[in-house]
Amino acid sequence: MTAAFPVEALAGLAPVGLAELVERAALQTRVDRKYLVPEAVLPALLGQVAPYAQALDIDGARVFQYRSVYFDTPWLASYHDAAYRRRRRFKVRTRTYLDSGQCGLEVKINGARGSVTKHRLLYDPRDGETVHPGRGFVDEVLARESLGLATGTPLDPVLVTEYRRATLLLPESESRVTIDTDLAWRYGGATLRLSGVAVVETKSASAATPVDRVLWRAGTRPARISKYATGLAALRLDLPDGPWRRTLRRHFRGTIAPATPAPALSPRPEQEASCV
């Protein structure tokens, strides 16, 4: 069973509002480091970073529900670029903040030396499963980045993810940390849930953050995981999975059971991936 997010541990951190978080650490161009950690260690981790971390607080809430819809070409160009580790690649998604109902259409560009640049357009949440209203924005970003996708190439919804997120600000390094739990994926008629593990992601201009150092001292090293690519690889066994094979073997075990019709992401999953 998935453990509850350690809200009590978050309560021990000083609060920070959304406007200040964005002002101090928007980091639209950044270096990301991702870690897979057991949910059981989160209280200890938060306790260690409490002296120099603040928790995003909106009207007293510190954990928020997210839904992302990922779009790709009919031949999964975005996925294959990641699978074959092409240095420059793109990802297109909508992200809906379920607590507030706000939504954004995002284009993420992976560039040299592991840098990530995110372009974002405010979006109508009713359009969260289509790129059509924002297609001009997507084409403009991809053309400016010279990524070679022809204007008008179909971009269809492929994968849906949901998770709960807490966000930390590290003021001294002007960096951010996100902690995602209760991760769930839906592809076609199959769903997958990742139980008992959290994805901790540090986002900085380049240098390691204090959270990176705490994790390194504990023997935890960055993991290869992409919510889109790793989730799709777990659900589509016919796809190349080289970059995420170790993560898949260690954290995504079991058989994905098809379901018809495609179920909503609900508290009772068809399958839970086991974690070591």
TrEMBL record:
Residues 30-235 form the VTC domain. It comes from Sphaerisporangium rubeum. This is VTC domain-containing protein. Residues 257-276 are annotated as: Disordered. InterPro entries: CYTH-like_dom_sf, VTC_domain, VTC_sf. GO terms for biological process: polyphosphate biosynthetic process. It comes from the Bacteria. The lineage of its organism: Bacteria, Bacillati, Actinomycetota, Actinomycetes, Streptosporangiales.
